Amino acid sequence: MERLYYSSPNQSYYYPTTLNYVTTSLEGTKPIKNSANTVVNNDFYIENLDQVYDTYPLFFQNATTINIPQKIKRHIERKIPKSYLHKIDKNTKCAVEKCLLFISNLTSTIFFDDKWKSLSAKILNKQFKKGKDNTITYTYVVEALKYKSNTTDSIIQTKKNKLGNDTYQEGITCKSYSFTDTFYSNNLVKYTITNPEIIAKRNKFIYSQIARATDNVIATNLLKLYPRIDLPSESKLKAEATRLIKENHRTKKGKLLTKLNNHSKDYFKDASQRSFVEENIKAFKFYTDISYMIPTIGDAKSGGRVVDSFTLMPGWIRNLITIDGEEIVLVDYKALHPNIAMSIYGGSKKFLTHQQVAKESEIDLTDVKIQHLSFFNKEVWAMRESPLYSYYHKSDLSMIIKIEQEKWNSEFKHKITSMKMFAKEVEIMTECVRRLNGIGIYVGYVYDALFCKESEREIVKKIMNEVVIELGVYTIAD
């Protein structure tokens, strides 16, 4: 048995590895086959496909440690009435720990633009049920965390639609939760769980996630890569941030990299258009401080995309890691999703680029790149409001009609387009990783791109270019 070791301050771990590819699908739906004819099954539903894929971010660490925002524990102990806590568990300390465990499911949202997170009722029920008791305890946890009075705010809130109801559709959309503004803080503290039953359940879930990871080509590749990665020091991060700020560096979403310099975000009138160094570094520490995340395989809503510490950390920080002491490079497909759309929906173009769209549409190149991140995934009305709509409507009308009709008619509504496109993307990236692993090359994964050692760049490009054409999508890796 091959052993993979991951170190933390107190222990090491080893796990068996295999190379079988599986994905998961939406709870409550029929089995779905992706373009590789692989039946996909279900565990999770993820609401925000562009940003949050880790319903429960679990790490290679002992099951007792969780990260929570400051002040929440004290608030639960002092402000939430005991009558609310005792519905959860007659043991007050156990009830508090269950509240903190729920909170830990939302901690990662503080590092994303969209603060909402969908949580599966089925998984929450398993996470919080007591022994063989079938009482749905998690609803009491939610009730306690939503408690507020004239003098205190609730800790969490549920997302509402225009009618004021929870955004929940059975078999389609789980409830979404977030912290209230009062408790939305990225100043985190670690809490050590003491309740044996909670620890046992967390251990069981961690092992199940490891088992899923070892049955997935991309995730197994990552497990083999992790021991060879070295992370940048905080001093190196700060030096790189200073250099990038001088160059007016912008993120993939067009946000200007900025230092807070002890100011609050409210100090900047255009704070939503900026990405703050201090927050980026806190996110980096969250995903790597104790250990790396166990690679998480998404459901059919994300096409089986894999999420780990390196997909979630800020790109400019990820660029500073090394593999075997060697600097890395990112090998990225050019306009992969527009070209996937052309492939799936019968578009007329091949090897489409952002530059080509910018030139033909007379839209700024930066805007084209940003719009392409979400254009095909939007509701029909939102697509029509995009600057790209008139370009595609004029150049590929039949393709746009097919996409719109599918969004209207599918049981998944507008999400069906992204489901298909993400599934195709994952099929392509899985085959790339499979072939690279076959010749002893292990790579980092960032959805539609791979990162590798500088010395392996050309072979990675070659295989990526071979695979994408063989699978019927016409673009190139660079």
Describe this structure as you would to a colleague.
It is a single chain. With 478 residues, the chain is α+β, with helices and mostly antiparallel strands. Among the domains are: 65-193, no CATH class; 321-478, Palm domain of DNA polymerase. It is built from 19 helices and 19 strands. The protein has a 5-stranded antiparallel sheet. Strands 3-5-4 form a 3-stranded mixed sheet, with no helix packed on it. It has a 3-stranded antiparallel sheet with strand order 7-9-8, with no helix packed on it. A hairpin with a 2-residue loop joins strand 16 and strand 17. The longest helix is centred in the C-terminal third of the chain and has 24 residues, at 415-438. The chain starts with 5 loop residues before the first strand and ends in an 8-residue tail after the last helix. Residues 1-55 have low confidence and may be disordered.
